[in-house]
Design brief:
Length: 325
């Protein structure tokens, strides 16, 4: 990865600003790849610098929206989810899909979406599974924006935002075709239905999620979807060893495909289940110490905070003197 970033940086350094006019598509692709590589390499500050520079040069709203996705991911990795939501909102405005201006308008749109689904003859969940893949650049981009927004709302526990964004992702599928991020929307709706104590619908959404994941293994969307699914497995009172093993698999998949944030969140779940299984507490603390160091190195704000909180929770079991303040 570092070698790839080095060559991308060298390529960018060799390019003059005037090339944005003479070789626009090349410069656009180069800087998009460079920004994304910086995020994967946990250099969110550099990613933001690249995005800000590029936004001064891009020519179309759809190009701007693609760079804003990378910028939102950089802020989310640093733990600033509200800023990440704001940036995605800007991108959706550029694509003529603005979010509701306040909670009242959001609730109105949710109710409208639910009423429309209930009034339709088709089975919405099955219909989503039968759709072809989105092919247009706009369709793929809108799916990606909704996928990122789902994560930001979910991690900040803005559940109405999760519900609304999932419904919008379904609408996007019927407009443009399906996408890997639809699995994430389905997983989120399974989680929402569990919170609403509607286990029948939760299972239907979960089954649909698993069906789509078979088509999209080892992707960012699959890792995010599976992190949500861990809670469903736990809710059904499986032995703790099962969701723990599943969380470990998700963490490995996340790190393998470069989705560090959700890979780290899955690692948090693995350690949390380990605590409930009464693991060797000293060993668990040592693992958490290494995990927190990794999160700090990679600028993973939220997983770092969770890991540190878990270490603090171990103090009564270990003795506060054994853990550095």
């Amino acid at each position: 990865l570092e070698a790839g970033i080095h060559y991308l940086e060298q390529s960018a350094d060799l390019c003059q600003e005037s090339m944005w006019k003479t070789h626009y598509e090349f410069m656009l692709s180069l800087h998009q790849q460079l920004a994304h590589a910086a995020i994967v390499n946990a250099d969110q500050v550099r990613a933001n610098e690249i995005v800000e520079l590029s936004l001064k040069q891009v020519q179309s709203d759809i190009d701007k929206a693609e760079f804003l996705i990378e910028q939102s991911a950089a802020y989310a990795a640093l733990g600033d989810l509200l800023k990440a939501i704001e940036i995605v909102s800007r991108a959706l405005v550029l694509l003529k899909r603005p979010l509701p201006v306040d909670d009242v308008e959001m609730q109105k749109e949710i109710e409208m979406q639910e009423s429309r689904i209930q009034a339709q003859d088709r089975d919405t969940i099955q219909a989503l599974l039968d759709l072809p893949s989105a092919k247009t650049r706009l369709g793929v981009l809108v799916h990606k924006l909704y996928g990122e927004l789902l994560g930001y709302y979910y991690l900040s526990m803005q559940l109405d935002g999760v519900r609304l964004t999932a419904y919008r992702a379904f609408d996007c599928s019927f407009e443009f075709g399906s996408d890997e991020f639809v699995a994430y929307a389905l997983a989120c709706m399974s989680y929402i239905q569990l919170l609403d104590s509607n286990e029948v619908m939760a299972l239907r959404y979960e089954s649909a999620t698993l069906a789509l994941l078979k088509k999209h293994p080892d992707t960012f969307a699959s890792v995010k979807s599976k992190v949500i699914m861990v809670w469903a497995f736990t809710h059904r009172c499986n032995p703790i060893s099962e969701p723990r093993s599943y969380a470990a698999e998700i963490a490995a998949e996340g790190f393998r495909c470069g989705e560090l944030r959700y890979g780290a969140l899955a690692t948090c779940l693995k350690h949390w289940f380990g605590l409930f299984q009464a693991d060797d507490i000293a060993l668990l603390d040592s693992q958490l110490e290494k995990f927190c160091a990794f999160c700090q190195q990679c600028n993973l704000g939220m997983p770092l905070s969770i890991g540190e909180a878990m270490r603090i929770s171990l103090r009564p079991l270990l003795g506060a003197s054994t853990i550095e303040g």
